[in-house]
Design brief:
By secondary structure, the chain is α/β, with parallel strands linked by helices. It is built from six helices and seven strands; from the N terminus they run αβααβαββαβαββ. A seven-stranded mixed β-sheet has the order 3-2-1-4-5-7-6. It is globular and about 55 Å long.
């Protein structure tokens, strides 16, 4: 059967898709409260915000997919349907804002399609935005993201500017937030200029990565949101 990390909703993916299970581990490892704001400013095909919405609504992973054991002679469909039905009864409304953004319009279109298939399109705000234009509501929240790693030759230089921009934006616009991200390069993570601590290690797409978390000090300046 299909690999168990596949929830069944992600048919549209970007260049470097993040496994659903790793995205869920990142959310748990970040300490995110499912009723608090969750922002992913580099959302790609939307895996992190979609997994956050599934958690917030208590939707069991893979609820709408089929499993190989359902073809076994010993499979008891009535018992399985009863279990699924009880899980459906526990689904609840989402709490705080869950948002993802990316400068790639194609990636955001994929994220919206995935959110629709996951049944959480109404619970996730997905927009085309540059990092510097992302809005962070005043208060406490979490930023959980998977920035590019720069494992290919010649990529580290341009990516250092991206990490520096991400760090600058978070320090100025998201005081009081926690941050969690995957990193495969200590030079790039240092460009954030945010103190980070390792929570766990994993592999993503065959690349060894570390999940790091930190806290953005409150009391920093914040840009006033634009009126529309």
């Amino acid at each position: 059967g299909q690999l168990l990390h596949r929830r069944g909703y992600r048919q549209a993916t970007g260049k470097a898709p993040l496994r659903e299970t790793l995205a869920a581990a990142m959310l748990i490892g970040s300490g995110w409260d499912s009723t608090a704001t969750l922002i992913d400013p580099l959302c790609g095909s939307g895996t992190i915000p979609i997994e956050a919405a599934l958690m917030a609504r208590r939707i069991p992973p893979g609820m709408n997919r089929a499993f190989a054991f359902q073809n076994w002679p010993s499979y008891e469909s009535a018992e399985w349907e009863s279990l699924v039905g009880k899980s459906r009864d526990e689904i609840c409304p989402a709490g705080g804002l869950i948002a993802g953004s990316d400068r790639d319009a194609g990636a955001v279109d994929s994220a919206r399609a995935n959110a629709e298939r996951a049944g959480v399109s109404e619970n996730v705000v997905l927009e085309v935005r540059a990092i510097s234009d992302v809005d962070f509501p005043v208060g406490n929240g979490s930023v959980v993201t998977n920035p590019p790693y720069g494992v290919r030759v010649g990529e580290r230089g341009p990516l250092r500017n991206l990490y520096a921009q991400l760090g600058k934006t978070l320090r100025s616009q998201a005081p009081g937030y926690t941050i969690g991200l995957l990193s495969a390069d200590t030079m790039l993570e240092s460009a954030l200029d945010i103190p980070l601590a390792e929570v766990f290690r994993a592999r993503n797409g065959g690349i060894p990565v570390r999940f790091l978390t930190g806290h953005l000090e409150s009391g920093l300046g914040r840009r006033e949101p634009e009126t529309r």
